[in-house]
Amino acid sequence: xxxxxxxxxxxxxxxxxxxxxxxxxxxxxxxxxxxxxxxxxxxxxxxxxxxxxxxxxxxxxxxxxxxxxxxxxxxxxxxxxxxxxxxxxxxxxxxxxxxxxxxxxxxxxxxxxxxxxxxxxxxxxxxxxxxxxxxxxxxxxxxxxxxxxxxxxxxxxxxxxxxxxxxxxxxxxxxxxxxxxxxxxxxxxxxxxxxxxx
Length: 198
What we know:
The protein is an all-alpha fold. The protein has one domain. The chain is about 85% helix and about 0% strand. It is built from 8 helices and no strands. About 40% of the residues are buried.
């Protein structure tokens, strides 16, 4: 990739990683629950999971979905159904139960979550489709470059969302505020899914 192509893809990656979406809502909720230290595995898992999605898209998934758009639509619908269910669980979990028994989302869960996230698929497929054709490198080299650049953008973006959640941790000791926060997070998560299909 040329310097200009790299800079353009990095800018695309920053926008894709920092904007609100299901993954960032999950990271923020993890920060509000477990704080910065316990939330770091979640951020790292999300960044590496999304980078692995970019890597696989660069190796050929993007071409497959461009040839068979129905396959991407089906995957997005399955992912959206899961995220709506997750939003429902967030909104209906008892506050006292959440404080006592819920653990912060870990590395593996966050990484796997990226493969179920419709926004993640759309960002990866559209990014590869837009920038892949101009690269003179091999498929493997291009895919690795895309994955690495997205990690460079995604990890700091996730940290920003984690810090925002951790800053809210003290406020959430009040049951009424915690209840309102859960509902807002559920609505934002559901809303972020619906915007993908508009």
